[in-house]
Amino acid sequence: MKSFKIFIIAFMCCSSMLFGQNTKENDLGAWYMYFYTTKIKNSAFSIQGDVQYRNFNTIGDLEQLLLRSAVTYSPKNTNVTLALGFANITTGVIGENDDTINENRIYQEGLLPQKVGERLYFTHRIRYEQRFIENQDFRTRIRYNMSLNVPLNKNKIEKNTLYAALYNEIFINGKKNIGNNRIVNVFDRNRFYVGLGYGITKKIRAQLGFMNQSTENAGKDQLQFSIHHSF
């Protein structure tokens, strides 16, 4: 119960930072996310995905609505997970402009968990994306994510566990020419995140964190609130 109170206090403090903002390029944004995974009985397959509502500000100024799902396969006698998935992304324009850009995305990924010592739970993920973006040529991108979860009051993440969460993810573009004489950089962006999570039940975790996203030309800070659900 004490751990849950700490998580709630952190959530309230971060929430108070969000409200009352105007929509500006350098505003602190907010991402609200739901991640799910469910195993197909008596098989090495499962289904995973996420829904993300991303805002330039607290809420209401759409940055992106992301809908993503994948079929995963875990080869026998390994802890590797392979995935084939599809995503649809609607991207908005900052401010009062309601224009949007649509993207469909196919992706493949490999996931490798790694435990170091008693409490360091690493996960390595590499993802290859094929991107079909409105009014652009076909694009590809490679992403590498390394995340770390550290239980603070127990040795593993389960019900009533308070834990620290960190990750860094780098994005590298494939083809630079995206059509109509437009060129993108090879380096697309980097995301660095630090947060605090709590195991509400054996199958549901809540997480609150801060993420900085940087490109060669700009950077933006985001608060992230996420629910992680396995069933």
Automatic annotation (TrEMBL):
InterPro entries, A to Z: DUF2490
UniProt keyword Signal present: yes
Keyword field: Signal
Highest taxon listed in the record's lineage: Bacteria
Key word Signal present: yes
One of the Pfam families matching this protein, by short name: DUF2490
Leader sequence residues: 1-20
Name used for this protein in its record: DUF2490 domain-containing protein
Lineage: Bacteria, Pseudomonadati, Bacteroidota, Flavobacteriia, Flavobacteriales
